[in-house]
């Protein structure tokens, strides 16, 4: 053994035993964080160390001296995995865990937080978000306080997306703020006020199975100190210390021995290969072929890269089976302590990777069209990476730089190579000199059009100025401008022309690249401010002098909207569109779209003053280039005084008249600018303002925040009121009778939103609605809309927050309260005029108008502005823009995934039409993979969408059905909806349909499963993700949906705490046979006919569509039901009624039925048809045997153990009710000795059948005793349950609540 190894072992042994007083770990928890109490103790004693408490969830197993917690039966159970720390957390103390094991079965994953509950006294819930007091948890990417969501998007990371090896931590600061950490990165303040005494808590929920507490937080520091001690104690250390630093040779770059589980390092650390290729020579290792796996081939450099040092590898060997190839990049993670993921792009922190021809940062694409496609490289090609001193990251392909890929990359990063897909072996190449960085070529769409820019052509000297916004980059000799970090930054990218425009000179640009991440897009205009004098703001519309801009359809001067509904919409333009601007000699500003003049946008530009062209690369717009059309225009616009055919007066745009504020307003409000601007002159209240007219259906009343007064707290309030502003009596003009604030306006019905609360007449109706209005800033747009479906919607910066309230009256006025910090607002919206076709403003879409439209179509025109909403498209097809592994055929009606298991997203090109059923058929499944297709809708334009690897990564404007869950923008909003899509066999036909109110329905083989998502914005497109097993689907001919109005099964918004243990079996509900023309389950129909023969009152049962649910073998397998579930507090198992048909009973409206069904246990009671009516009349189980039906029992007296009350018998007064026998297993409760059989003749087939009945009941915990079965059984009891717990007996009155009537027919 070498001396260095002996010394290393000695140091580690001494450290572990506490004998050597050297702190090799991270500083104590308080060091550097304001704590001095723990700083004097370098090593924590076992009593001080954070461990898991011995008392934990029922399925938790502790090990590793209580530092590791694991959930037992992870493939059968998804909850009851709560663990807590053994002591309260100290101020500034880090509580950090590492994810050791995940399972790919459940949705949802680990949750972590703090609680004030002492673990010694706590009755552990099934999941920690069920705890309604003293608990703060991070779940997904949001924060839940006492089980309710308080912050929907706390950070960019989602705990549900973390992988094995990722770290999660939290700390309570000394100022009471709670911070969470993901892989060591502080995610910011989760909540500012945390109780002083809290315990750390971890919920091993869903996919999370095993975690370990991590005490060494600073691995890099520990490694550096370890190496320093080893060098100091080794014989070579003294010699090395005598060598001057300038003469020391740099350590050679090698691969670190810690590599992916399917990778190996050879040739003294110079070569990395993906494992066991077979007998390829002396370096090959016999075994499985490289074609057996495509990932787990991550390797890192042995040390951090120096600034300007190139790390380059040569591809030695490749295989031709997989899609994708080598990936290269850098990471801040130390390879010695990194739990290597299966592929490096799964790492969510500190990582930049070039993959294909794009660049990803922390698993998110930041550049789509960056450089040479790495997937096309061959053996012998080289790839490299370098971090320069200015923090920019550059990649090289065969020695050629690909340009800057990322900015602000920290120093001390390690090089990373991912031998993914085709790449099988790579070797480090030395002695590459960094070539100079030439001017980068334009990025994005390289297709050349007649007006595309050319680097060497073009007679105009117009370029972009070298001065620009902080996020803008000028390339291609000043002809191209782009916004870097386009997926993390959306503004600060203003560019301006290098000289002033001449009269009649066109400045034209072409959009080359866009991202589908933000709202809003490019803004363009002119400014009289010289570039040298311009202090570039965040957006150009923030400038309040000498600037004219087109934003969307609004013409803005000096930051104020002059007019709306200009002839073009910049937000609707896509890649390849050309935008031009020109000032005429008389001072008019004209815009050109794709060479077409849109008319005079505004007039009065100073004729003798120079103006510069200005472009704001805002939101979705990322890159533009100046076109060859830029230059003088050879037309009459330069000197003519005649208006063009598309110009019209500025003061009266044809598309509408600007909204106005009513003269009646709060006493502190003054109205300016002809009633379009409202200013609160003094104080913080008395700021009510109203619209002049009542709002029409789908009309938006929108304002822009002009001025804030930060000394006040609160937020702008807005809503709808039935109060007529002009009928408020004497003195109403100045509003002396108005209350000081909107919540106090109660003389007429008023709906309002304040902060994130919805109120009606001052009473709280809903919390956590939309974006918090307290976060509005200067320039923010806020609007209100009364929907045609009598709902109130709030819009923030153009984004609809969804329905805030329902049942809104027909005649309502918009009302705003300039309260607290919001001091002034200006109106940016306009009314919609009912004018003839000839007076409508010319626009690209004006040629497709229709004449003689019926009045009953006006509602459809109001929703989305499409008069053809009711027209069925002749042929549906998939869009040409799709995932990179998709191949379209059959006239674009069939989509096939040709490689891998992801990158398979397709979108139907036509938007969904209300009441039109759009269906796809599953053609082929590959059982090699797990999971299956994902179905849903997106509301963003799919033509320019850059599709991620899977639909679950869509974080904007996406509603998806995956497995049995419903997801919105990556967050689960509903569990256990409909059948499990992962279990649908080949041939299954899945459909989506929008009802008339915007609810999205799922159809399975023609059967409506109910509303999955209410109030889906329109227009929207159906999306299918061919993921995992699903490799091919085909569009089935569309069918018009049933125009039956709204579904009764609308699923409301629910917190997770309300859903985990609540009843969520509302899937595959069978419509009543008479109302459904589609094919239904024959067994369900047979059971329904028997239930009708019992002549039971309809009022006892839940009305359709949730009246009944079939549990025959085909139905429960189609839904993917599990055989057993847990219910109640504490939770207890019960079996699902497989083989029976369930008819749901109405709950007593005076009981808290929703609470009982979650907190009470579930059980079954075998009965007979003679007692059903009597039991339903009494509302609970009792004794008696008298018959009310003329039917012949098959056996003798059926009352063994289960004595039902007779029809005309009542129990003696003051007597204890007889015991009621129950069971969590219907296999036992439904045995023939407990649930007698009767014969009946089916009125449809005239065949004789045997039938049984039973009740499904909710049972109050603690009201019953359990024991072994008392009834004589012909067959063995249910083996899933312990015999000692198979039979429950209760004598307490009111201990049971009837839940459903069960029927089985043989």
Automatic annotation (TrEMBL):
Role, per record: Promotes CCP110 ubiquitination and proteasome-dependent degradation. By counteracting accumulation of CP110, maintains normal centriolar homeostasis and preventing formation of ectopic microtubular organizing centers.
CDD domains for the chain: SPRY_NHR_like
Residue ranges of every copy of the NHR domain listed in the record: 49-216, 252-431, 461-629, 658-830, 875-1038
Main location: cytoplasm
Gene name linked to the record: Neurl4
InterPro entries for the chain: B30.2/SPRY_sf (IPR043136), ConA-like_dom_sf (IPR013320), Neuralized (IPR037962), NHR_dom (IPR006573)
Biased composition (Acidic residues): 850-859
Chain intervals for the UniProt region annotation (Disordered): 434-461, 831-867
UniProt entry keywords in alphabetical sequence: Cytoplasm, Cytoskeleton, Repeat, Ubl conjugation, Ubl conjugation pathway
Any coiled-coil regions, as ranges: none
Protein name: Neuralized-like protein 4
Compartments where found: Cytoplasm, Cytoskeleton, Microtubule organizing center, Centrosome, Centriole
GO molecular function, one term: ubiquitin protein ligase activity
Any one GO cellular component localisation term in the record: centriole
Record has Cytoplasm as a keyword: yes
A Pfam cross-reference name: Neuralized
Oligomer and partners: Interacts with CCP110; this interaction propmotes CCP110 ubiquitination and degradation via the proteasome pathway. Via its interaction with CCP110, may indirectly interact with CEP97. Interacts with the E3 ubiquitin-protein ligase HERC2 and UBE3A. May interact with MAPK6 and hence mediate MAPK6 interaction with UBE3A. Interaction with UBE3A may be indirect and mediated by HERC2.
Gene3D superfamilies: 2.60.120.920
């Amino acid at each position: 053994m070498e001396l260095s190894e002996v010394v290393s072992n000695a140091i580690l042994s001494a450290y572990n035993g506490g004998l050597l007083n050297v702190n090799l770990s991270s500083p104590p928890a308080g060091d550097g964080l304001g704590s001095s109490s723990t700083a004097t103790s370098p090593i924590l004693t076992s009593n001080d160390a954070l461990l898991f408490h011995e008392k934990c969830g029922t399925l938790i197993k502790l090990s590793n001296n209580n530092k590791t917690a694991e959930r037992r039966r992870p493939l059968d159970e998804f909850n009851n995995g709560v663990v807590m720390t053994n002591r309260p957390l100290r101020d500034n103390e880090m509580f950090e865990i590492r994810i050791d094991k995940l399972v790919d079965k459940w949705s949802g994953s680990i949750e972590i937080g703090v609680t004030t509950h002492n673990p010694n006294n706590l009755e552990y819930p099934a999941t920690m978000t069920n705890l309604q007091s003293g608990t703060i948890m991070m779940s997904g990417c949001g924060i839940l306080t006492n089980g309710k969501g308080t912050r929907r998007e706390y950070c960019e990371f989602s705990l549900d997306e973390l992988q094995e090896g990722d770290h999660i931590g939290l700390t309570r600061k000394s100022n009471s703020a709670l911070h969470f950490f993901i892989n060591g990165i502080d995610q910011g303040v989760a909540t500012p006020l945390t109780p002083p005494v809290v315990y750390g808590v971890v919920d091993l929920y869903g996919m999370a199975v095993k975690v370990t507490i991590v005490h060494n937080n600073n691995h890099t520091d520990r490694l550096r100190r370890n190496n320093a001690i080893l060098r100091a104690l080794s014989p070579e250390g003294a010699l090395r210390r005598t060598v001057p630093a300038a003469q020391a040779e740099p350590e050679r770059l090698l691969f670190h021995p810690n590599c992916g589980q399917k990778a190996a390092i050879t040739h003294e650390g110079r070569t990395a290969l993906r494992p066991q290729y077979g007998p390829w020579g002396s370096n090959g290792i016999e075994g499985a072929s490289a074609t057996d796996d495509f990932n787990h081939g991550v390797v890192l450099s042995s040390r951090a890269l120096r600034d300007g040092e190139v790390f380059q590898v040569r591809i030695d060997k490749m295989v031709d089976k997989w899609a994708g190839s080598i990936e290269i990049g850098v990471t801040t993670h130390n390879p010695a302590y990194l739990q290597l993921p299966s592929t490096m792009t799964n790492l969510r922190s500190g990582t930049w990777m070039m993959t294909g021809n794009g660049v990803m940062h922390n698993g998110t694409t930041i550049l789509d069209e960056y450089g040479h496609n790495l997937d096309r490289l061959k053996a012998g090609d080289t790839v490299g990476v370098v971090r320069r001193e200015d923090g920019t990251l550059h990649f090289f392909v065969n020695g050629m730089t690909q340009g800057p890929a990322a900015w602000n990359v920290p120093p001390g990063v390690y090089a990373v190579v991912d031998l993914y897909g085709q790449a099988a072996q790579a070797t480090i190449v030395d002695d590459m000199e960094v070539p100079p960085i030439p001017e980068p070529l334009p990025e994005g769409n390289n297709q050349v059009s007649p007006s595309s820019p050319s680097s060497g052509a073009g007679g105009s000297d117009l370029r972009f100025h070298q001065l620009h916004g902080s996020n803008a980059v000028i390339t291609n000799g000043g002809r191209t401008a782009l916004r870097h970090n386009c997926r993390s930054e959306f503004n600060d990218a203003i560019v301006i022309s290098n000289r002033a425009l001449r009269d009649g000179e066109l400045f034209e640009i072409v959009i080359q690249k866009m991202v589908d991440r933000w709202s809003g897009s490019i803004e363009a205009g002119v400014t009289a401010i010289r570039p040298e004098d311009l202090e570039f703001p965040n957006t150009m519309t923030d400038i309040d002098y000498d600037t004219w801009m087109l934003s969307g359809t609004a013409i803005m001067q000096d930051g104020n909207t002059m007019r709306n509904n200009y002839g073009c919409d910049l937000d609707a333009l896509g890649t390849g569109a050309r935008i031009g601007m020109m000032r005429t000699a008389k001072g008019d500003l004209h815009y050109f779209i794709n060479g077409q003049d849109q008319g005079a946008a505004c007039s009065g530009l100073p004729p003798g003053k120079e103006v510069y062209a200005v472009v704001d690369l805002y939101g979705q717009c990322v890159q533009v280039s100046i076109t060859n059309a830029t230059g003088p225009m050879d037309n009459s616009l330069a000197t003519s005084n005649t208006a063009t055919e598309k110009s019209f007066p500025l003061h009266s745009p044809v598309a509408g008249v600007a909204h106005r504020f009513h003269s009646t307003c709060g006493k502190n409000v003054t109205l300016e600018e002809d009633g379009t601007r409202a200013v609160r002159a003094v104080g913080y209240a008395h700021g009510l303002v109203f619209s002049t007219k009542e709002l029409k259906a789908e009309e938006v009343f929108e304002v822009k925040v002009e001025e804030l007064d930060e000394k006040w707290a609160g937020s702008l309030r807005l809503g709808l009121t039935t109060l007529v502003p002009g009928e408020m009596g004497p003195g109403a003009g100045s509003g002396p009778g108005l209350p000081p604030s909107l919540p106090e306006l109660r003389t007429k019905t008023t709906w309002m939103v304040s902060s994130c609360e919805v109120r009606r007449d001052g009473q709280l109706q809903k919390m956590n609605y939309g974006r918090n209005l307290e976060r509005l800033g200067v320039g923010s747009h806020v609007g209100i809309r009364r929907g045609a479906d009598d709902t109130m919607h709030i819009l923030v910066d153009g984004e609809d927050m969804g329905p805030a309230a329902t049942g809104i009256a027909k005649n309502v006025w918009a009302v705003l309260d300039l309260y607290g910090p919001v001091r002034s607002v200006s109106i940016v919206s306009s009314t919609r005029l009912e004018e003839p076709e000839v007076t409508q403003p010319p626009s690209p879409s004006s040629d497709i108008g229709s004449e003689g439209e019926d009045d009953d179509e006006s509602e459809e025109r109001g929703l989305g502005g499409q008069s053809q909403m009711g027209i069925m498209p002749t042929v549906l097809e998939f869009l040409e823009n799709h995932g990179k592994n998709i191949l379209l055929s059959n006239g674009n009606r069939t989509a096939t995934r040709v490689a891998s298991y992801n990158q398979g997203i397709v979108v139907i090109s036509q938007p969904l039409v209300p009441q039109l059923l759009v269906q796809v058929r599953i053609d082929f499944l590959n059982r090699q993979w797990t999971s299956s297709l994902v179905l849903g809708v997106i509301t963003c334009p799919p033509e320019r969408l850059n599709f991620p690897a899977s639909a679950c990564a869509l974080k904007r404007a996406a509603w998806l059905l995956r497995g049995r869950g419903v997801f919105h923008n990556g967050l689960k909003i509903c569990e256990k909806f409909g059948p499990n899509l992962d279990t649908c066999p080949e041939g299954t036909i899945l459909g989506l349909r929008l009802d008339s109110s915007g609810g999205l329905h799922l159809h399975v083989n023609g059967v409506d499963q109910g509303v999955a998502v209410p109030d889906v914005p329109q227009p929207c497109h159906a999306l299918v993700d061919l993921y995992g097993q699903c490799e091919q689907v085909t569009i089935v001919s569309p069918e018009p949906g049933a125009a039956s109005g709204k579904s009764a099964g609308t699923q409301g918004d629910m917190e997770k705490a309300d859903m985990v243990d609540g009843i969520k079996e509302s899937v595959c509900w069978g419509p009543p046979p008479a109302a459904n023309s589609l094919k239904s389950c024959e067994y369900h129909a047979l059971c329904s006919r028997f239930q009708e023969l019992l002549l039971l009152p309809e009022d006892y049962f839940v009305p359709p569509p949730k009246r009944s649910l079939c549990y025959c073998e085909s139905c429960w397998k189609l839904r993917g039901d599990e055989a057993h579930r847990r219910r109640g507090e504490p939770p207890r198992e019960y079996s699902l009624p497989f083989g029976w048909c369930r008819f749901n009973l109405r709950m007593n409206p005076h009981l808290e039925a929703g609470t009982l069904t979650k907190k009470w246990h579930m059980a079954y009671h075998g009965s007979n048809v003679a007692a059903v009516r009597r039991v339903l009349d009494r509302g609970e189980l009792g004794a008696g045997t008298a018959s009310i039906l003329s039917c012949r029992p098959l056996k003798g007296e059926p009352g063994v153990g289960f004595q039902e009350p007779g029809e005309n018998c009542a129990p003696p007064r003051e007597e204890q009710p007889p015991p009621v026998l129950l069971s969590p297993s219907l296999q036992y409760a439904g045995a023939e000795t407990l649930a007698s059989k009767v014969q009946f003749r089916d009125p449809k087939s005239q065949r004789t059948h045997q039938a049984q009945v039973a009740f499904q009941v909710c049972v109050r915990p603690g009201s019953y005793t359990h024991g072994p079965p008392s009834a004589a059984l012909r067959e063995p009891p249910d083996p899933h349950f312990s015999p000692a717990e198979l039979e429950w007996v209760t004598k307490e009155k009111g201990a049971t609540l009837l839940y459903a009537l069960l029927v089985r027919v043989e």
